From TrEMBL:
Species of provenance: Flagellimonas halotolerans
Protein name: DUF4325 domain-containing protein
Source organism, top-level taxon: Bacteria
Length: 110
């Protein structure tokens, strides 16, 4: 699927990951999900294109943040559709991509 949009987390959201929920503090996975990930993902699905998630420059990648955003998206939309409309880039630490994909494929685990 062709990439037609890029979400650079460090530039658009902030450069540091918080925890899972709003009440856990600033820059939570749920805040990222509500304000950035879900709206852009929905546009990608509607437009039948892929959204590139650029993780470079984003410090931290705790499971609580990833499951509070990408895991939640997977629970709501299904792993197959999520993985068909999202691509990831993280030249600085490719393991962050693997973690995101693992959580998308296993959204119930914390």
């Amino acid at each position: 699927m062709e990439i037609k949009d890029t979400l650079i987390i460090a530039k658009e959201f902030g450069d540091t990951a918080g925890a899972r929920d709003y009440d856990d503090g600033d820059y939570s996975g749920k805040e990222f999900y509500d304000k950035f990930l879900l709206p852009r993902f929905n546009k990608a699905v509607e437009g039948k294109y892929a959204l590139l998630i650029d993780i470079d420059g984003f410090w931290g990648w705790p499971s609580s943040f990833v499951s509070g955003s990408f895991g939640l998206l997977s629970k709501e939309k299904g792993a197959k559709i999520v993985l068909s409309h999202l691509e990831f880039k993280c030249d600085s630490n490719p393991m962050k991509i693997e973690k995101a994909k693992y959580i998308i494929n296993n959204p119930e685990k914390k």
